[in-house]
Structure to design on (133 residues):
């Protein structure tokens, strides 16, 4: 007998994480980060202004929060968990793609990961509050 899972039957299926919502959140975070990078590159090219590391860090966090918000809005439950997974995935992928090679598992690495995950969890919770019931 084949059991089909419906939206109303998530408790019986014990589904907590929806991979499609997480994937969409991570994709949105990367897309936003690419748009932000393009805008900053144009601003730096055409003006004498230089971006500070604090601004770049803030914009990366905002992109991840937006991705977590989207994942929280797209999932059916456990929006905070979807935000945490988006934050972890984005942090690990940003770290792999960055040119700054930090020693993994150092105190600074854990601190930055925790900050990213907490910001993403907040975004996921806001997205969960904003979804239609």
């Amino acid at each position: 007998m084949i059991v089909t899972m419906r939206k109303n039957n998530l408790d019986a299926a014990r589904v907590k994480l929806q991979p499609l919502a997480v994937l969409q959140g991570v994709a949105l975070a990367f897309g936003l980060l690419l748009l932000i990078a393009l805008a900053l590159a144009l601003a730096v090219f055409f003006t004498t202004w230089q971006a500070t590391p604090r601004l770049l860090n803030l914009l990366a966090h905002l992109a991840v929060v937006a991705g977590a918000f989207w994942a929280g809005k797209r999932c059916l439950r456990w929006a905070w968990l979807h935000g945490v997974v988006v934050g972890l995935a984005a942090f690990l992928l940003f770290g792999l793609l960055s040119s700054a090679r930090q020693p993994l598992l150092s105190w600074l690495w854990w601190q930055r990961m925790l900050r990213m995950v907490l910001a993403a969890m907040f975004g996921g919770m806001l997205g969960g509050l904003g979804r239609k019931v």
